[in-house]
Amino acid sequence: MSAAAVRSPVDEAPAAGYTQPTVKYLTDRHADRPADDPIFALNREATQRRAAGESIVNATVGALLEDNGTLAVLPSVVQALHGVLPARGAAYAPIAGAPDFLAAVVDDMVGGTSLASRATAVATPGGSGALRHAVSTFLDRGQTLVTSSFYWGPYTTIADEHERTVTTFPMFDAKGGFDVAALSRTLDDVAARQGRVLLFLNDPCHNPTGYSLDDAEWTAIASVLRTVAHRVPLVVLCDVAYRAYARNPTGFLRHVDALADDALILFAWSASKSFAQYGLRVGALVACTGDSSQRSAVQRALSFASRGTWSNCNAAGMAAITQCLTDPSTRAQVGRERSRLTTLLDARVQAFNRAAAGTSLRYPRYDGGFFVTVFVPEAARAAEDLKSRGVFVVPQPGAVRVALCSVAEADIPRLVHELDTAVRAAT
Ligand code: PLP
User: Fold this and answer.
1) Distance 340 CA to ligand 1 centre (A)
2) How far apart are CA 349 and CA 352, in angstroms?
3) 35-64+331-426: which CATH architecture?
4) CATH 3.90.1150.10 in the chain, residue ranges
5) Sorting pLDDT into bands at 50, 70 and 90, what band is 3?
6) Strand order of the sheet with strand 234-239?
7) Which of 94, 142, 299, 348 has the greatest number of C-beta atoms within 10 Å?
8) Ligand 1 closest atom vs CA 207
9) Which residue spans of the chain are classified as CATH 3.40.640.10?
10) Does 249 contact ligand 1 (Cβ within 6 A)?
């Protein structure tokens, strides 16, 4: 090579006055993504301050903790995990999920109803995966899903990630009940705009409000949904992540059962809360329709979506949860251990309701579940104020979310007192 052909760094230097264009590795849509989920960031701060010796009430964590602050687990589930045969745990699971797991989930979700014979299912990484599949499969790009004005924040993240949006209706009416009329108006509007509807209903034990719909509300909702389903294709997703902690975990089923001839009914089933295995990432999307050819088309579309995203799910996790659902003695043991956890949580719910009686706190009917939402104007300021006094809650528009699942019963009087002070200061 001749000396003249060798380019030195000086040759490469830009001419004076030239500005190097900023390299854009990320596409515009992804360039300004927030770095962290705000709830995880709050939890980190609470944990750091507690580790530094401060007395902290951390009501941000969406996992059930024992009163001593450790994660509550079900020993029989852990044992089932340890017992998974290496050859099953190490092998790829079928793309749609292990057939015995799917049959067990369908039975757990809709067994004993006429939905059982009209169901198909695919495995997903937790309920989040089920929500993701619903958004990508039952909406086109640019379309919107409908949910209540209070909702689990990742609904928006999942929708945005897939270039869909979220449209909300006011969740509560003037009397504090579920606003069925607002639901109806919003569904009509979305149906007219996009010719199809995907509705997310998180019930029972709604996150973040703790609200569980009663029978009369479900009756009214079912009637609205039937009307919509006669006009446009309607997909109703029941996000049942917290069902195991509800007073009445199955009461709503008869209402959706009656709808399955008119609409596609989905269940985002999750082992995260019901088996206290958040990190296992075991879940499923169960889809029910009376139309068998639609059902096979849905099954094919969901399997395709699995192949196009996570490929297949946690084989060991599915095997262990299958054992928990189907082996009579493991199932009975899980039931006993779980009922200790529901009792632990119920005691906190009652302690909260007792302490809040006669205070300034306003919150929806709360009779079970991981969270409750306390209404407060200027919620971000109220949450900051609470933080300065060692109480961590999650601000949302017009309210703060209080995760009683992570607060020891003994701390609830302090929590309620500080909330009361913050609400009074903000109003
Ligand atoms: N739906 C709601 C309302 C939730 O709060 C959560 C988790 O916090 C999920 C679904 C999904 O949880 P996972 O993906 O762990 O099953």
Assistant:
1) 21
2) 5
3) Alpha-Beta Complex (3.90)
4) 35-64+331-426
5) very low
6) 119-124, 283-288, 264-270, 234-239, 197-202, 144-148, 165-169
7) 348
8) 3
9) 76-326
10) no
As a whole number of angstroms, the distance between CA 383 and CA 41 comes to 14
Cα separation values, 264 from 198, 233, 240, Å: 9, 8, 16
Q: What is the mean pLDDT of the chain?
A: 94
Q: What is the pLDDT of residues 314-361, one digit of tens each?
A: 999 999 999 999 999 999 999 999 999 999 999 999 999 999 999 999
State in Å: Cα 130 to ligand 1 middle: 10
DSSP 15: P
- Which of 105, 152, 202, 242 to probe ligand 1 with, by most ligand atoms within 8 A of CB? 152
In this prediction the pTM is 0.93
- What is the C-alpha to C-alpha distance for residues 348 and 364, in angstroms, rounded to an integer? 16
Query: Does residue 148 have its Cβ closer than 6 Å to ligand 1?
Result: no
pLDDT at 10 over 90: no
Q: Is 212 in the pocket of ligand 1 (CB under 6 A)?
A: no
Whether residue 152 has its Cβ less than 6 Å from ligand 1: yes
Is any atom of ligand 1 closer than 6 Å to the C-beta of 147?
no
Closest to 224 measured CA to CA, from 238, 209, 234, 237:
234
Q: Identify the residue whose tokens are 């009637």.
A: 223
CA of 284 to the centre of ligand 1 (A): 12
Q: What percent of the chain has pLDDT over 70?
A: 95
pLDDT of 178-198, one tens digit each?
Answer: 999 999 999 999 999 999 999
Share of the chain above pLDDT 90, in %: 90
Q: How confident is the model at residue 18 (pLDDT cuts 50, 70, 90)?
A: confident
Domain spanning 76-326: CATH 3.40.640.10: yes
What are the b/e assignments for 158-194, b being 16+ CB within 10 Å? bbeeeebebbbbbbbeeeebbbbebbbebbbebbeeb
